[in-house]
Amino acid sequence: MSTGQGSTGVRGPTRARIAARTLRTDRWWQAPLATFVVFSAFVVYATVRAFTGADYYAKPYLSPFYSPCLGDCVEGASDFGQPFGWFPLSAALIILVFPLGFRMTCYYYRKSYYRAFWLSPPACGVAEPHAAYSGESRFPLVLQNAHRYFWYAAVVVGLVLTFDVVLAFRPMPGEYAVGDGETSGVHMGLGTLLMIVNIVLIWLYTLSCHSCRHAVGGRLRHFSRHPVRYRLWTWVSRLNAHHGRFAWYSLFSVALVDLYVLLLATGTIQDLRFF
Ligand code: FES
Q1: Which residue of 10, 32, 47, 245 sits 20 to 30 Å from the alpha carbon of 267, by its own alpha carbon?
Q2: ∠ at Cα 90 (89, 91), nearest 5°?
Q3: Domain count across the chain
Q4: ipTM passes above 0.85
Q5: Mean pLDDT estimate for the chain
Q6: Which residues neighbour 141 within 8 Å (Cβ) at sequence distance 6 or greater?
Q7: Does residue 7 sit within a domain?
Q8: Does 243 sit in the ligand 1 pocket, CB within 6 Å?
């Protein structure tokens, strides 16, 4: 490990000379290890599902990985048309950049994956293996500053997913038939319930974002002159304290809804109907 002058790492000239990697005696490695395992599993699952390009729609449920379905999607899945119908690969890849960019640049996830994957550092009070440190001041990490723009995109994605939940109440063809085969009534199945839980968690994650907090309450000199923004800022601040929890819960719920749609679409299970 470099100890030369000018090093900005933990062995740099301005840092305390401590030979031990850490003086911590607790199980500090548990959190980064859990993050590594769970995050890796999600990335593998999501990558396979996004590239597969099949089994993402089981009427009336659309997988969140494929929403909005703007490519050459199966019948009934494209509620916003197919402007990218010419796209030769999976339709999920057309919109993936927005949710992926939002999560990858998230302040909470950054902390988690810097620790778990780059060991930079692996935990508080544990020396990192790298000899130099430039933070997020250079390419490519300087691009993390795009997070606020991904937040705006995430709000749009959240609205689309909310619309999907409304559509999940649509009756199936032939159900509740009235008149000339027209369908009417409300569908409520386990898929609908999972999608409701998912969208609640997605909104909690999106609205508890640090960029959201800044968007509603940042750059103000006097809160007293902006009572509405102050009120919003206090609400977002309360949510923000739980942002890490919402990050994980919404990650699980997105994968769970997709898995449920996959099992339905492949005929592995039947939708559990409530009414
Ligand atoms: Fe996590 Fe913005 S800080 S989504």
Answers
A1: 47
A2: 115
A3: 1
A4: yes
A5: 92
A6: 134, 135
A7: no
A8: yes
The verdict on residue 119 lying in a domain is yes
| pLDDT interval class at 178 (50, 70, 90) | low
- The torsion of the CA quartet 213, 217, 219, 225, rounded to 10 degrees, works out to 180
Enter the pTM of the model: 0.91
Q: Is the CB of 250 under 6 A from ligand 1?
A: no
Single-letter residue type at 110? R
Domain membership flag for residue 24 = no
Relative to the CA of 212, which ligand 1 atom is closest?
2
Distance of CA 237 from the midpoint of ligand 1 (Å): 13
- Which residue range(s) make up the domain with 82? 30-265
Measured from the Cα of 109, ligand 1's closest atom is 1
Candidate from 78-87, 141-150, 184-193, 263-272 with smallest mean pLDDT: 184-193
* Sequence-ordered list of residues with C-beta below 8 angstroms from that of 177, at least 6 positions apart, any chain: 183
Residue nearest to atom 2 of ligand 1 (CA): 209
Q: Is 183 helix (H, G, I), strand (E, B) or coil?
A: strand
Q: Is 8 a domain residue? A: no
All residues at 6 or more sequence positions from 274 whose CB lies less than 8 Å from its CB, including other chains: 188, 189, 190, 192, 193
What pLDDT, on the 0 to 100 scale, is given for residue 272?
Answer: 92
pLDDT surpassing 90 at residue 19: no
Please indicate whether residue 236, judged by its CB atom, sits closer than 6 Å to ligand 1.
no
108 Cα to the center of ligand 1, angstroms: 6
Mutate to test the pocket of ligand 1, among 152, 201, 210 (most ligand atoms within 8 A of CB): 210
